[in-house]
Amino acid sequence: MELNTSNKNNRKSAVISGSHFSDLSGFYEEVSDVFMNDEDWKVGTLDGFDDILYGFEGEIIWKEAEKSKEDLGFEATKVFYQNKIRQGKPFNKELIQQKLEELVDGIGQTLFEILIEIIKSHSNIKLILE
Fold it and tell me: Quick check: helix, strand or coil at residue 54?
């Protein structure tokens, strides 16, 4: 866990360490520690992760990204979708089923790919995978 604010132009540098987690809930803990150390709440959803990136400007260094890519890959994503389908409301079961089918067909995104997409959707953030 590391957040460095001493870079040029007051840009920040945040480090997400893949060695600190092996599943999505561990990822949420890691990013909560990195980005929200002084807050009363923790990230617990993909939308919540997206929300905490607003206002952050700088670079995110994701160490051991290959480990995270495997940990948050096909199997973890399949279980993630199956749990949402099983839970039902408030989730749109048809949409989640479609996402699961796309994943199984090899055209859907894994959790790792979704997280990368979320980070890259913020133009003020540079992502570095190590």
Answer: coil
How far is the C-alpha of 18 from the C-alpha of 96, rounded, in Å?
26
Quote the CA–CA distance of 119 and 112 in Å, as a whole number: 11
Measured on CA atoms in the order 114, 119, 123, 126, is the torsion positive or negative?
Answer: negative
Kindly give the residue spans of alpha helices, DSSP state H, lying in the chain. 24-35, 46-53, 65-71, 74-87, 93-104, 111-120
Residue 21 to residue 31: CA distance in whole angstroms: 10
pLDDT 10s per residue in the chain (130 long)? 455 544 444 568 999 999 999 999 999 999 999 998 888 889 999 999 999 999 899 999 999 999 999 999 999 999 999 999 999 888 899 999 999 999 999 999 999 999 999 999 999 999 999 9
- φ, ψ at 16 (rounded to 5°): -105, 125
> What strand order describes the sheet that includes 125-129?
2-4, 12-17, 58-63, 125-129
Task: Name residue 125's beta-bridge partners.
Answer: 58
